[in-house]
Automatic annotation (TrEMBL):
Residues 47-121 form the RNA 2-O ribose methyltransferase substrate binding domain. Keywords: Methyltransferase, Transferase. GO terms for biological process: methylation. Signal peptide: none annotated. It comes from the Bacteria. The lineage of its organism: Bacteria, Bacillati, Actinomycetota, Actinomycetes, Micromonosporales. Belongs to the class IV-like SAM-binding methyltransferase superfamily. RNA methyltransferase TrmH family. GO terms for molecular function: methyltransferase activity. This is RNA methyltransferase. InterPro entries: Alpha/beta_knot_MTases, MRM3-like_sub_bind, Ribosomal_eL30-like_sf, rRNA_Methyltransferase, SpoU_MeTrfase, SpoU_subst-bd, tRNA_m1G_MTases_N. CDD domains: SpoU-like_rRNA-MTase.
Amino acid sequence: MSVNPQVGRLDHVRAPDQPLFTPRTPRIVAARRLHRRRDRDATGRFLAEGPQAVREALAAPGVLVELFGTPAGLDRYADLAGIAARAGVPVSGVTDDALAALTETVAPQGIVAVCARLDVSIGTALERRPRLVAALAEIRDPGNAGTVLRTADAAGAGAVVFAGDAVDPYNGKCVRSSAGSLFHLDVVRAADPAEVLAELRAAGLTVLAASGYGEADLDDLADSGGLARPTAWLFGSEAHGLPAELADAADARVRVPLHGRAESLNLAAAAAVCLYASARALRPGATRGAPESA
C-alpha cells in the first residue's frame, strides 16, 4: 500500500497479491465480536461505520485503531484511508461479506473502523468547567441516546453523562445516531445517578430535571434569567422518565410547555428544546432577564 503525500490519497488500496479479508479472517472475527457489549467492555474498543464517523474518529488523536473497507469503499474514501495509513493505522481491504459482518446497516457505506473508547471520568469532565451538561439517567434506547449526544454537541454542551443502568454509548445504533458527535465532547459513564447529581452540583452547576410534570415552566425560567448560569440537565428514559428521587433532588423540575394538542414530546425532542434554551441563555451578550450574579 502506498500513499501519495502531496494529495493525501491512497494510490493503491492493496498489493495485487494481497488477499481481501473474509468473514473468517481472525482480525474480522475479533472485530465482529465488538457488536456485543461484553466484548466492547473487555477490549475497550468499538465499531464506527461510515465516512462521517471515520472522519471524526481520525480527528481525535489515538482513537482510530484499525480501518477496514471494501476495494470500492477504500477507493471512494481514499482521502480518509490515506490519512489513516499515514498515521500508522492498519488499513485492510475486505470482501463485501466481511464488511456486512462488521456493519449493522442495510446498505453499508464501504468502510468501518475499530476505535478505542474515549470516555472520561466525571471528575475529568468537570475539571474542564463545562457550562452545559446533559445527564442521561437509565436511558435504554440507543437511537434516542445518540440523538441527544448529537443535539448536546450542537448546543455547545461540554459533556454527556450516561448514568445508572443506561445504554452503552458505544452501541452501534448510538454511535450512528450521534453522527460523529460522540467524538466531539466528553462522554462519561457513571454507575450511580445520585453521585453524578452531587458532583454536578459541587462543580457549581445548576441541576435541572426535565419532567412533563415539572413545577417550573421552561419559558418562564428562560424569561426570568434562570438559565443564564452553568447548567446540567437531567433526562430520564422515555418509558419511565426520571426516577422520583433523582428528580426531587434537582434544583428544579422543569416542564416543556405544550402549546398545541400533542400529549407530550419524546425524549430527544424534549432534550433538544431544553438544551437549546440553555444555549441561548448562555450565549455571549444574552443578559436579558439574567440575575446580577450570573
